[in-house]
Automatic annotation (TrEMBL):
This is 2-hydroxyhepta-2,4-diene-1,7-dioate isomerase. Gene3D superfamilies: Fumarylacetoacetase-like, C-terminal domain (3.90.850.10). GO terms for biological process: carboxylic acid metabolic process. The keyword Isomerase applies. Belongs to the FAH family. The lineage of its organism: Bacteria, Bacillati, Actinomycetota, Actinomycetes, Mycobacteriales. One of its GO terms (molecular function) is isomerase activity. It comes from Rhodococcus erythropolis (Arthrobacter picolinophilus). Residues 70-275 form the Fumarylacetoacetase-like C-terminal domain. Keywords: Isomerase, Metal-binding. It holds the Pfam family FAA_hydrolase.
Length: 277
């Protein structure tokens, strides 16, 4: 099953489900809200049968979860990326957080101020939580996954490098595209080695597979739940494969007007134009 969040012509937002006949609206304002409702399966089933059909060319496809309560991110979690950064494979996840207003839609422009320099791409698999998780073991965490989506953790390296803490380079407003759909675990399994790619102006810069993760999604959710409760609609970014601009020789960063596309096999594609200054 594939779920998404759309903004309609009247400005209202709605969750939707993809069906063989196209997208149909669900009686919930967005996918995050839908996951927090006790009758999620009933609402989705009803919408798939009789929900209002919408033309995706005539609506704005938004961040699949527009207002998550928590966004946690894992750095240095693909073995290829660990190698290109000249690091050792970590014993524990390297975590940082984002804010809800860091997110933006799968086709929106990413607009940054002129003082944001050395702007980099990071193709990522994102996990959306579907259950309350606290002190969860790996099996419970796996059962608590609502689904998977695509993220681009666009990073302002000039700010990220200012201190040992990464937050300031990772949390510029509306710089983390997320979407276009949430795919449920019955239709997507990261262990299946799905390809994850990033192109910049049509040039392939990242190519990896989701089985290269040091810590898989269930392990990440279990670990995080040991120190903070996870709830339906929370989002966890699982890290980026090798090929980021900062790891190139010489380092290569995004220019004004660059088109960045991130795609994960079996989920979908983000396509965003970067506007600098």
């Amino acid at each position: 099953m594939q779920l998404l969040t759309v903004r309609l012509s009247d400005g209202q937002t709605s969750a939707a489900v993809m069906t063989p006949g196209g997208a149909r609206l669900i009686a919930s304002p967005d996918v995050g809200a839908l996951l927090g409702e006790g009758q999620k399966s009933e609402l989705v089933s009803r919408a798939a049968d009789s929900g209002k059909k919408v033309n995706l060319d005539q609506v704005q496809v938004m961040s699949v979860v527009p207002n998550p309560r928590k966004i946690l991110c894992c750095g240095l979690n693909y073995r290829a990326h660990v190698r290109e950064m000249n690091r050792e494979e970590p014993a524990f996840p390297t975590l940082f957080a984002k804010f809800a207003d860091t997110l933006t839609g799968p086709h929106d422009d990413v607009v940054l101020p002129e003082y944001a320099t050395d702007v980099d791409w990071e193709a990522e698999l994102a996990v959306v939580v579907g259950a309350n998780l606290r002190n969860a073991d790996v099996d419970e965490a796996r059962r608590g996954i609502a689904g998977y989506t695509v993220a681009n953790d666009i990073s302002v390296r000039s700010w990220q490098r200012r201190t040992l803490q990464w937050l300031q380079g990772k949390a510029f407003d509306a710089t983390t595209p997320l979407g276009p759909v949430l795919v449920t675990p019955d239709e997507f399994d990261p262990a299946s080695a799905a390809t994850i790619t990033c192109t910049v102006d049509g040039r392939l810069v990242q190519a990896g597979t989701t089985d290269d993760l040091v810590f898989n999604p269930a392990e990440l959710l279990s670990y995080i739940s040991q120190f903070t409760k996870l709830a339906p609609g929370d989002v966890v970014l699982t890290g980026t494969p090798g090929g980021v601009g900062a790891g190139m020789t010489p380092p290569t960063f995004l220019g004004n007007g660059a088109v960045v596309e991130v795609e994960i096999q079996g989920i979908g594609k983000l396509s965003n134009t970067v506007r600098l200054g």
